[in-house]
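Email to the structure team, subject: Acetyl-CoA carboxylase biotin carboxylase subunit model.

Hi all, the expression group asked for a predicted structure before they design truncation constructs. Nothing fancy, just the tokens so they can compare against earlier work. One-line instruction: predict Acetyl-CoA carboxylase biotin carboxylase subunit, return tokens.
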Amino acid sequence: MTRINTLLVANRGEIACRVMRTARAQGIRTVAVYSDADANAPHVKMADDAVHIGPAPVNESYLLIYKIIQAAKDTGADAIHPGYGFLSENAAFSKACADAGIIFVGPPEKAIDVMGDKARSKRAMIAAGVPCVPGYQGDDQADDVLISEANKIGVPLMVKAAAGGGGRGMRLVHDLKDVANAIKLARSEAENAFGNGELILEKAIIKPRHVEIQVFADSHGNTIHLGERDCSVQRRHQKVIEEAPCPVMTAILREQMGAAAVEAAKAVDYVGAGTVEFLLDQSGSFYFLEMNTRLQVEHPVTEEITGLDLVALQLKVASGDLLGLEQQDVTLTGHAMEVRLYAEDPADDFLPSTGPVHLWQPSGLARVDSGIQTGGEVSPFYDSMVAKIVTHGATRDEARRRMIKALSETALFGPKTNRDFLIDALDRPDFVTGEATTAFIAENYGEDGVDLGAHDFSSYAIAAVIHHKLRQQAAHRLALNVNPEMLDWSSTGSLETVAQYADGEDAQTIHVHVDKPGHYRVGSGEDSVAVELISLTADRAKLRVDGRTLETIYYDDHRTLYLALPRRSLTVTDLTGLSAMEDAGGGGTVVAPMHGLLLEILVEAGARVAKGDKLAVLEAMKMQHEILAEIDGTVETIAATAGKQIAADDLILEIVADEAEETDS
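Reply from the structure team: attached below.
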């Protein structure tokens, strides 16, 4: 056994913090690496030492093996933990660590090399007798070969990057005429994300469950599994809600899937923590999907039901020690759930959201693994997941209800988030009954984003009362010799304030009437509610609205007020005193929806375009996003340059709309 004294974590965000917590608990010195964008990040502050490794883009920092190795040498690190993503499944990185005499906290080069390539791993699994999805995983990567094989397989078809994961380089094809474009997009995305454009094709299994088995192996030939996780709720092939155990799992099926996962690990002489992913169809048949040769994002749910610290086990095995567990030692207790809090806009097809973090306030009811902080920033250069929230209960429903409560007490103000979507999803009938499949989001919310409906007027009333009280307190601080008890009091009994709120494209005028100090009648048109402000602190308010008591977290940014109400978030801007803002150009003005790299501009000035035509491709949050024309017309101006970084709302191009055809009256 080789003792680890100093551990360098070759990652960032929540997983870097997670690994460091266990390492520090074991008395191991920790080292962080960071890019320009992460100079003040939580993982840098948490580490005992930190090394700057380059600019924000991953290809200039977190993906540079030689810089990571040099940082380890400079800080005396005798081991490197890769986390997940970045270099965690890079065989060359594992080899570079070995060549430098540094312990790699992960599997050997061979296992990563085989299992990190979907084509090779699938061939290996077929040889080992593990059930696999029909498809093409050949070496010939010519477009015409892939198109020919796609025609043989038929639709629905999945085009997938052979390297990497996380839903990148993946396209679902329902019409064979779209195969060529899917291949182009998937290959480009894979090359940018993983440096490898190799693709595989698979018959798409519609509405399966995504069930994965956690395996662990030591260097002495011992391999076991730690049960399964159900990761079926996904958007863009990336997991959103995970749980353990799987709601439909039986003892016999667990034994079969566990045995298959163990055989898969043994086939490549695996060592360390790994996850064998399967698709489970409605008949109970399961098919090998891939093996992730690293710690998974969702590992906490396994920790919660087994009582094991998987990072501690990783460090133990990496040190050359025995695993110290046999299969019969593994017991599963209760039920655990994890949700991924993303900085994104579910209403806009889950488009990533970036920007400063005005307030980050997680719930104390759950385990929260996060890599953000108040005053920090969600960068456009990295994955949009900012935190994981984990709950455990004696039953599945207890864990689910505890998760909803924890989310209701969670606030992230600044970028848009999926918090409200998660609360809503956890309460959908098919999730409540444990029947969710990978089709859950499409079946419950459609294909064009999540519409949770309009906010109740009471939400705006709450915002107006809080705004009223905050303004009043600000004025009082500037006044001399005014008794606080006189606030909200008038001899005429007719105090009123008015707010004009903008929420997206809508605006409404709201009147706040003071009945007596702390008691208000709030109205707008035919809407009216009674609001009592029970208490107000720096970031929390307790109110009674039409007799119903609730608490909300808030953040006041001058005219803009952010609210995290129990089930919905609300951001309003008070336009009182401001002139109405003019339209910025409508569908003819095409701007960047977020900060990112403008990969391509596909039209030229003077070109005719129709609504729905592809205009440009933007890469942000490691994903490629097609920007489409919203109107018919002629491209008048190209304002941006392909290959350059572009900020949110920067002008890309302008389209002059076609004149409406005149009709006889």
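The mean pLDDT is 91. The domain at 6-105 is CATH 3.40.50.20 (Rossmann fold). Ping us if the truncation boundaries need rechecking.
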